[in-house]
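User: Sequence in, structure out. Go.
Assistant: Echoing your sequence, followed by the structure tokens.
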Amino acid sequence: MLDLQYICDNLEAVATNCQNRGVSVDLARLAELRDARASHITEIDGTRHAQKEVSAGIPKADAETRPILVEQGKVLREKISTLEAELKTIEAELRELQSCIPNMTHPDAPVGKDDTANRTVRTWGTPRKFDFEPLDHVALMDRHDLLDLESAAKVTGHGFYFLKNEGALLELALVQLAVQTIVRHGFSMRITPDLARAEVLEGTGYQPRGNETQIYSITGTDLCLVATAEITLGGSLKDQILEEKSLPILMGGLSHCFRTEAGAHGKATKGIYRVHQFTKVEMFAFTSPTLEASDEVHQKIVAIEEDIFQQLEIPYRVVDICTGDLGGPAYRKYDLEAWMPGRGEWGEVTSASNCTDFQARRLGTRCKSPEKKGTQYVHTLNGTAVAVTRAMIAVLENHQEADGSVRIPKALQPWMGKDRIG
């Protein structure tokens, strides 16, 4: 979340940023609560001081005065209790309002209400011109017996799937390619839990409860299924103070991802483009608390994503995400969108976000150095190395041949053990 003092000192800029992001927050009420909290803290301190003075006087008082002081002490204690209860209520409402305010936005990010305002930064490769009618991934996977949606619907429900035969091998190959690539670029790998506490989800900016949530919660516990390893990797250093000289810390995480996809509809739900569970290799970074440091790592993450899809020989474009399409924690975000012939359009395959100190402030992750007094909140970043289902669609659809077979990119062949499906 944003620093409370920063919000109150920059109300106009924060209000404009909220408007650009399509977020409605009562900033006037937040300022009122900030002042009410300050006055309550002052009054509590004054009352507590008075109560201590009264208590100190009781042993020295005569028999006539002592009962009066005892009664005064009781009244002051009750007042402190009432004020503290009121302060607790004020702070809860204040934190709720503060947590609704999105991160500030990079000044160069496009301003717009939805993804139509996103800006293409660059493209790589050229969408293939087929001399035959290309199939979509559903038809290709059906032809080669790679996918079983019917059995998954019986076992788990709509939005789940079995990968079979070369489909299963292709997932494992994509994971290996992504892992080997990010390790080569200095990321240390982790296989993360698929569950996290609700407070960790909130710390990384996800909403674990409520009508708008996209998260699966485990009834009777404070645990949720994670939507991405960003949650667990970010939470792994919760409440820790790091040495600034140890930064950046670059982590890779392999996990399953679970999303309710509430409200999803249309052709995006066909096949495995939008599903309730998928495998993903994620990149996460903790950097020094400067925009220069986090921007450098942000560019590195995007470059790694591009490296992976160039190895997969998939045409893509890099998109600078507009204000209305940014998630709450992101200061700036770039997506890679791969060309998907079966859809006849670009489809998102990766995201890379610089969250500055927004997540770290919630998670309590700070750093210190001998040159600076006290501690500072680190910057955090995240990026998709590979989200398997989306990458699989791009590979199958772009590398299909006229005879219905699918050429396997050279980068995947060592793990597939073949150069062609079909």
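User: And one key feature?
Assistant: The chain is about 40% helix and 20% strand.
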